[in-house]
Design a protein that fits this description.
Layout (H helix, E strand, L loop, with lengths): L1 H15 L15 E7 L2 E7 L3 E9 L9 E7 L2 E6 L4 E6 L5 E6 L6 E8 L2 E6 L4 E6 L4 E7 L7 E4 L2 E6 L4 E6 L4 E7 L5 E7 L4 E6 L16 E6 L4 E7 L16 E2 L4 E6 L2 E6 L7 E4 L5 E5 L4 E5 L5 E6 L5 E6 L6 E6 L1
Antiparallel strand pairs: 1-2, 1-28, 2-3, 4-5, 5-6, 6-7, 8-9, 9-10, 10-11, 12-13, 13-14, 14-15, 16-17, 17-18, 18-19, 20-21, 21-22, 22-23, 24-25, 25-26, 26-27
Length: 343
């Protein structure tokens, strides 16, 4: 009988804990942060509300000249902010957003893109120097450089292989991080290869070419931008596809960025919408959003796409495949770069 009464007591206690006065609480808290770059520096916002958390994560206080940030790249527990006009990269702690260090690029900078080969080494391309910089992540020092045939733009890493785009030569170079030397030089069939991404799951580099007439010094009639897939294993070109939802609009399309997700798809925003291409099938690029985004960034931690409108203030957070809008916010200032991090 005592055992029976004890069981009744446990049941009653369990039921009372679920009464309206003591509701069951869902422990999942879908809160996170944006770190964004505006004309004066870096700020942080709480998501999904868009509330300003810190307007001065890093500020450029110069009244004579602004030093905007062109990109914010996450790696492990750090963020790397690339300055547009200055030869340095700001390194921040991803959790606290405290400034940890600054990578001085000297006469090689400013940086265009950065990719991370391992815990101790990053590779940087420069705006006006025909080199790839090797940054020691243990000391945040530009340790050495790799000479290139010309100035590079985008760079990406997959395992111990790197790929960088050479816009003026219409080439992509593949390097090995073990030897820090060029292992292959590939001719890209479309002019001005610029953005580079890596898909280690499928085993390809993704190179986006802007097309003829798209660089400031190129006065040729415009051509359709393309996406070229390079097989990492044998460093060969697999296929090139057009980046336009309609063939007739191709020459007018301007590709503004490249985002490669963890599920085998690449995304490029153009005027007619956000295009998605499968990295394995490589059949064509199709529009998944008919919105003129100015920037698309993949948030690997949350498996989401962060897409910024051309005004730099309106932001959509999309599903990993780009076909569903999950959240939208409007920021008070126009931004040039964004990254999503944990709260």
């Amino acid at each position: 009988m005592r055992y029976y009464n004890y069981i009744l007591f446990l049941v009653a206690a369990a039921l009372s804990s679920c009464t309206p006065s003591n509701p069951v609480i869902n422990s999942f808290n879908d809160k996170w942060r944006f770190v964004v770059a505006d004309a004066r520096g870096l700020s942080s916002y709480s998501m999904p509300t868009g509330e300003l958390l810190n307007p001065s994560v890093w500020r450029n206080d110069s009244s004579a000249e602004l030093y905007p940030i062109s990109a914010i790249k996450p790696f492990r527990d750090q963020l790397f902010a690339l300055a547009v006009q200055q030869p340095w990269i700001i390194v921040l702690d991803k959790k606290t957003l405290a400034i940890l260090d600054t990578v001085d690029l000297g006469t090689y900078g400013p940086a265009v893109d950065i990719a991370f080969a391992n815990a101790s080494t990053a590779y940087v391309t420069f705006a006006a120097s025909a080199n790839i910089g090797i940054v020691d992540l243990t000391t945040f020092v530009l340790a050495s450089t790799i000479p290139l045939p010309d100035v590079a733009a985008g760079i990406a890493v997959a395992g111990n292989q790197l790929c960088a785009a050479l816009p003026k030569l219409n080439q992509a170079v593949v390097l090995d991080s073990r030897t820090n030397s060029i292992e292959a030089t590939l001719s890209i069939p479309t002019q001005a290869p610029y953005f580079v991404g890596a898909d280690g799951l499928v085993g390809v580099f993704v190179v986006v070419a802007l097309g003829a007439g798209k660089l400031p010094s190129d006065e040729q009639p415009p051509s359709t931008p393309t996406m070229t897939f390079i097989e990492i294993a044998d460093r060969s070109i697999l296929k090139t596809i057009d980046l336009t939802a309609r063939a007739s609009e191709g020459p007018q399309q301007i590709v503004k960025s490249l985002a490669v997700n963890a599920s085998g798809f690449s995304f490029t925003p153009v005027q007619s919408g956000l295009l998605r291409a499968p990295n394995a099938q490589r059949n064509r690029a199709a529009a998944v959003q008919f919105i003129n985004y100015g920037l698309a960034v993949y948030d690997a931690a949350r498996a989401e796409l962060i897409c910024v409108y051309p005004d730099g203030k309106s932001i959509d957070v999309l599903s990993e495949y780009g076909d569903m809008r999950k959240n939208s916010v409007v920021l008070p200032d126009s931004i040039t770069a964004v990254v999503g991090i944990a709260l």
